[in-house]
User: What shape does this take?
Amino acid sequence: MPQRERPQPIGIRARSQTKGAGMVNFSALGAQRRSAHSRADQIRRRQEQNSKNIVSHDTQWQERMGLYRGGLDSVSVLDAFARIGWIDGLWAMLPGITADRGIRGAPHGRNGRARVGIVTIIEEEFEAAQKVFGLEVNIPGTGYFVAADSAAREWDVVLIQASDRSNVPVSADVTDFMEDLRPQILILLGVAGGLCNEGNIGRDGIRPGDVLFADQVNYVEFLKIDNGSIRVRSYAVDHPSEPLRKNVCTPISKRFKVRDHLDGMIHPPAEDAPCRIHIGGIVSAEKVLGDVRSEMQRELLKPFDKPLAVDMESIGMARAVCHGRGSFWYHPRYVIIRGISDLVADEENNEQRAQWKAFAAHAAALVASEFVQTLPADPGGH
Amino acid sequence: MQSDKLVDRVRQLAREIGELWQAQKPPFALLTGWSKSYDDILSGTFVTTLREDQILKDALATGRAILSGRGGDGKTWLLRRLHNRALAAGHVAIFIDLKQWTGGDYTEWAEWTRDNVGDGADFLFRRFSGLGLGAIDIDRLPPKSRKIVFVDGLNEISAKVGLEILAVLDEIVATHINMSVLVADRLVRRELPNLNRWWIGSPLPLAHDEVRKHLGKDAVLSTDDIRRSPFFLDAELRAGSGGSGRAATLDRLVRQHGGLSETELLVVSEAAYNAYLQSRSRMFGREAFELAVGQPIIAKLKESGTVCFNEAGGFFQHHIVHDFLAAYYVSKQDADTWGPLLFRTLSFEASSFDAIELAFELLDGNHADLFLQKLYDWNLYAAGYALAQARESDDPVGPEMRTVIFAMLADKRFDPVLATSQRADDALRLMQLTDAKPFRDAANFGEVCAAVQLVDSETQWFIDWKGLFGLAGTGEIPVEALARIKEEDSIMGWTVANVSKRASNGEWMISHLIQWLQDGANATVRWRIAHVLGSLPYHPALEQLLQLLDQDEDQDVRYGAVRSAVELSAIADPPLRATACTAIQQRARAISSSDRVERELRSSLLIDPAKAPEGWLDFVRDCVRSQFLATDNLSNRDLWRGCLNAAERLYQPTVAPAGN
Assistant: This one.
């Protein structure tokens, strides 16, 4: 493939004008914000905003506990916790000390900090993401790729290829990603099989080359079919972020045209492919139970008559993010962006998958790039 | 800042805890070796060597570090000093002292973690940190503050709970901001969660110069001198010299420093053993202990600092003193009492082998051999790990019995099941005795046989055993030798079982083995027969194994049968392998009803890729799928998922896309 200049995503390029190619300089962003408000003003505003946000929750909670006396300052959260016996020991020894509700910068991980973390699975997905986002620089000693080195170890977008396919390795990789770089937003980016209704027509008209923003994650293992009866077997997972779906994904699905962003070198294998963007459910198959086209998986998929696509990894992300939000200080969200590589129909479709896989991965990466550019520069950690 | 006050307050509390510890006087300068691999640590090769002042910065960069060492090599002192260093550096240091674990804590822990191991985090912090803080309170500290959890005494609780605690720590480090952990453990390979994120270290023996600094410049030191171990150097400084062994040093310590007479020693040792028996922990009930030994002895033990008491109960200042006393009691008992209960008690369910090795030292040669044989009856690896504690100068067990254990372990190094060969390798790597070397280094089974033949002895039983063991090298086993599988002597019986597995053209053995089963062989013999049947890839052998798996009342036999069914499948022709696979799948629910049998199946499926037949991944996949569907438990399902992933890495490194 001939070498050519990689297009820089607009948002990244714009931000990178401050310092360093393709990399957000957080201090520079801070300087921009300071041009509008003094640092003190900014802190005060954010404190006020934080307090307002917290008060709305705390008020209900304190009322329930019989503690509410008209304002946040009158009763500390810790005092309240202490009354219901949640906290003893140290807190009992610290009268008058309340929870710190000052400014909280998004936390750093063991290797630094990322605003957005992208996880891909197969080689085609990784290459597409690397190309579209221009993430060619490896953070030494890790599997992470970024646009440029950063002395501050802060990056706007960081990419990793999962160590293996399926839910278990993806879950482990996402867990490591969160510990290493504490990304605020995680994206599971790649390809998936479209699900069909009767007549082998893709649900919601989904076709190869289309892109799906998943709004929910389902899992075949949540339903157990036993002697003809169905039983629910679930565990706690996070679904893709609803606010991001409402405020970012839905607008993109309405106005962004994948075809308008193809660079002339990459075309869909079918000229008439609409390359639409869908929002809908995705269902994760379980690798232990066989290929998604195996009889057992297809039987298990039947009760899930609404999701538009099937993959093997989404539940790994959903579980890892749920599990990884184990600290007061870190609440990542995630989205799933999947290009459709084939339709999981009755007949064998290996050929279709082989034909569309690279394009589907590229289309998904283009949509992901638009998604990242649409996000606020730094959504914060809370 | 309010949050800074919180941090200061927690640090102050931690400092107050640190001030309660008696400083080690004199302090010894310790070096530690580090690597990312247990293979390196167990064979004593390190990526880097760190001084104490370098550990916090360098070893905790990954967030997870485990310091694996032998008893008495100064792990606790080191951990305490690092705790204080961390505080001095402005970090939040939390010391989880698992030596305070009591028998009741096992019950409570099981309750807390019944649904999810991670649920035990709050219990762990609140019960053992001494800070009165739960997990959420630690997390509430501001993210900018660096938090380091030091965990001491992981080897002083059962291996199962130890692994669960490691899982909890791993999760805390992953989710809490700016959190690290440093764990002290015994020198053994742990199934660390997230292995590649751990940094593994081991305290090195004290340098000769460091020892001579305290003993005098003319002190004569051997390479494996026990005084290169901080505890024993300290013991000699307190109680004087007079013997080279660990048991001799400890004996002197409790008599001279502890002030105990022989009669008092017997009383205390019985109470010490009973404390292990009743509490399964280093902590024991104060009242029962005081009642058993009486106030005058208690006064002596307290005055010398040998025993301490707190609100939770009593404990010996150093676990190795408790181990010595328990071993002393065992060494005075009749050999008939040396059985599984005693070994489980003494080793904390095969977690810690110092007490067992000390019992070797306290017994005379013949009794030490018998003790090792009985230990072998219980658990080969326990015998191996216990022997690995011994130093050249200890010489507790005769060369014949040592050779038997080395050879049996070396035989397992070539086992097709990866977990088995790794355990055997580990045990041999840990051996400090020089005559273990040829067994550790043998490149094939022939070299193991050659190493055995080189051991010369006039002892009749050993000559007999050598003859039996040597049959393995010929591939031929006469029926009268096979019949010795029924012998009561476990070493002979198991040697026959192992040798028979190596016989060529062994189909003729099946009818004999089945006949002996029908004749009412005892459980141990049935287990040995199941072991041999796994090497005979014929339908009758498979049918017999399945019958044992279905019907045998003894769990060891069922455990052996499931493993052998897998081994048989790995060497069977494709139709027989398919039959075996279907049979195992059909028994998925029965297999999953026993943790031990299920665990053994999972382990057995992962065989050496060089020995795996074509299509082995399909066999594993089918077995895994059945077991996966047979359980609703999420953790169990994860284990099966993990098993399949491991199999794919072993047998098909590049997996075809599934769903992508």
Summary: The CA atoms of residues 134 and 214 of chain B lie 42 Å apart. The first strand of chain B starts at residue 31 and ends at 35.
